Amino acid sequence: MVEPLCQWVLPREVAVDADCVAIGVARGISGRMLRLLAARGVASPDELRLFLADAEAGLHDPRLLPDAEAASLAGVDGAGAGRTYPRVRRLRRGWV
Questions:
Q1: What is the pLDDT of residue 10?
Q2: Is the pLDDT of residue 92 over 60?
Q3: Are 25 and 45 in contact (CB under 8 A)?
Q4: At residue 25, does pLDDT exceed 80?
Q5: Which of 21, 55, 56, 86 is packed most tightly, with the most Cβ within 10 A?
Q6: Exposure class string for 50-81: b at 16+ Cβ within 10 A, else e
Q7: CB 17 within 8 A of CB 45
Q8: C-beta separation of 92 from 85 below 8 A
Q9: Are 39 and 33 within 8 A, CB to CB?
């Protein structure tokens, strides 16, 4: 008799929080999708709201980076003086 080399591992059944179901119904998300998200770690209402939020909501303000002001001014000064940066010059010549 042939013995199998591998054994199937079926995923466990995941219970979806009632608040997540309410959020899903309000957003038009199916129960199957909510179960899939819960199985992948998006199980609490706060995590679901964060997952469904606009991508821009999770970004930080780039002006808060150190020396961001100096970098933005250097870019403006360089563009105004007709200077190009090495990467831009390579792309214009067709080097990639």
A1: 84
A2: no
A3: no
A4: yes
A5: 21
A6: eeeeeeeeeeeeeeeeeeeeeeeeeeeeeeee
A7: yes
A8: no
A9: no
Tokens of 44: 């609490």
Tokens of 36: 């899939």
Tokens at 66, concatenated: 């150190």
Query: In terms of Cα–Cα distance, which of 67, 71, 66, 25 is closest to 48?
Result: 25
In 3D space, the residue among 53, 1, 3 whose CA is nearest the CA of residue 23 turns out to be 53
What's the whole-model pTM score? 0.53
Q: What's the burial of 17, exposed, middle or buried (CB within 10 Å: 0-12/13-18/19+)?
A: middle
